Amino acid sequence: MSLIRPIIAGAMTLLALVSPAMAETLNLRVTGGQISDSGDTLNVELARQSQRDFATFTQLHVGQRMAIMLDDKVLISPMLRGPIFASSGQLSLPLLLSPEEVVALRDRLGSGKLFLRVTAPAQ
After folding, report:
1. pLDDT-based confidence at 17, cuts 50/70/90?
2. Where are the beta strands (DSSP E) in 1-123?
3. Which of 11, 31, 89, 120 could form a disulfide with 66 if both were Cys (CB 3.0 to 4.6 A apart)?
């Protein structure tokens, strides 16, 4: 009986910490991709674990707006209409990148060291 009270208190604390009002952030490892010469379209391929994590993340946040970011810059902020199970995707970038940024991003895509950060609900 004396063990039940701390367990219940711990469970209540955990529930408070995972409140839907709190933003959740996920880092996705990009293993490959391409960017258009004009910098307005980005194709990405996710690592297997990132694919699974992204599928779970989008299932949990259907109906919310998420932000997809690169280097703390929001690339897009779509509304999640349903879970996303794809291993690759195409992002239409509303902000055009400079030719130098396109070259730098192309190099990072080829290195396998590119990460996208996803946050929901979007801030």
Report:
1. very low
2. 24-35, 41-46, 67-70, 73-76, 88-92, 114-120
3. 120
